[in-house]
Amino acid sequence: MNTEDFVADTGIIRHRHTLADGRDLIYFDDPDSTLPPERAPDLRELDPRPPTARMRQDPLSGEWVSIAAARQNRVFLPPAHLDPLAPSTPENPSEVPSNYDVAVFENKSPSFGPLLSDADAPTGLDDLAAIGLGRIRTSVGRCEVVCFSPATEGSFGSLSVTRARTVIEAWAERTHALSQLPGIEQVFPFENRGEAIGVTLHHPHGQIYSYPYVTPRSQRVIASLDSYGPTLFADILATEQAGDRVILTGEHWTAFVPFAARWPIEVHMLPHRHVPDFAGTTLAERDELAVLYRRLLRGIDAVYATPTPYIAAWHQAPVNTRRDEIRLMLQVTSPRRAEDKLKFLAGSEAAMGAWIGDVTPEQAAATIRAALERSDAADAADSAANAAADAVGEAAQATNLPGKAQS
């Protein structure tokens, strides 16, 4: 189990509540928050939570598929005034009863959970790894929604640096807490952005999945470690830092287009030291990440004239295995291969898992770096304009102070 010490940022205040159907809700307040400490109760009359889904094993791959039929009933692209993630109003009794900076709550229609144990079957990875026909297990685990802002539109890149830091703190604390729950083997924070990805809510938000198994992707990473050795992540970082695919770098993090990028837009980010998950990061690492990650996403948005659809996946080490070797890593991918074209996973990729790239990773890196420069310049111009406006406002206020001569 994850035993690393978690260091919390005490300037980000937490408020823990319970929704009307028993789900957990946690508010995370910005350090400079103007919100009062009191939060309204959830007064809705809600139906009981759906039963925990069941998962079935594919005997050809050994992979488990959670059949979560209750998710068919989730809200699909509602108008802004009926946004279920916005602060609640009499006209819109939403999932979050009060105004907030960042809010985290259990998903109403989860793919995994709320049960954390399977009373009908053996537990543990050995049972899940066995291959058989017609094997069914309970989809134990937990799924949470992370609301980045009370705004009804936006994404992580549209947040302020302060708000981005609060979201990162939520990821770190929830990773630590979820890793302690029984039956949890891996914790996965992610953000889906854009209808082209399949997003059903425009509200700026992400999710955290807590799985009852080590995911197939992580199992392949473990196989690579077995073949290469425990220094795989450190060697990848050193190789990329010495190459020409680096997008941006700081004291603690480096972002780059990977050597064998699959997607037209694909960027990875690694911490400079070994850290298995968000819970193991230092406050300084989280502080820098709030700046660099936000900047990276804004740069990716500037590749084209309209916002870029993407999946931002934070790969973390499994809770109970290979934590000294598997490093926390961001993987941002977008299917957008041109201004008005998307890469669809057709026969080779979808059926055989054999990928064909549309652009060279080196060309993609140059394109993203140029977009990052444009984004930085635009942000600098906006900051200068805001500073000038503030100065004018302060000067005007000063001339109207009592005792000042009036023209």
Description:
With about 400 residues, the chain is an alpha+beta fold. It has 2 domains: about 10-215, HIT-like (HIT family, subunit A, 2-Layer Sandwich); about 215-395, HIT-like (HIT family, subunit A), CATH 3.30.428. The protein is about 25% helix and about 20% strand. It has helices at about 125-130, 160-180, 215-230, 230-240, 285-300, 345-350, 360-400; strands at about 15-20, 25-30, 55, 65, 100-105, 135-140, 140-145, 185-195, 205-210, 245-250, 255, 265-270, 310-315, 330-335, 335-340, 340. The chain has an 11-stranded antiparallel β-sheet, sandwiched between helices. Helix 2 (about 160-180) crosses helix 5 and helix 5 (about 285-300) packs across helix 7 (about 360-400). The longest helix is centred in the C-terminal third of the chain and has 39 residues, at about 360-400. The termini are far apart.
Spatial strand sequence of the major β-sheet: 1-2-5-7-9-8-13-14-12-11-10
- For the record, give the distance between the C-alpha atoms at the N and C termini, rounded to a whole number: 71 Å
Number of helical elements: 7
Number of domains: 2
Q: Which architecture of the largest domain would the CATH scheme give at its second level?
A: 2-Layer Sandwich
Specify Rg, calculated over alpha carbons: 23 Å
Question: How much β-strand is present in the residues?
Answer: 15-25%
Largest sheet: 11 strands, antiparallel
Principal-axes shape call: globular
Query: Which fold name fills CATH's third level, the topology of the largest domain?
Result: HIT family, subunit A
GO molecular function, one term: zinc ion binding
Enzyme class: transferase
Keywords: Carbohydrate metabolism, Galactose metabolism, Metal-binding, Nucleotidyltransferase, Transferase, Zinc
Domain Galactose-1-phosphate uridyl transferase N-terminal: 97-214
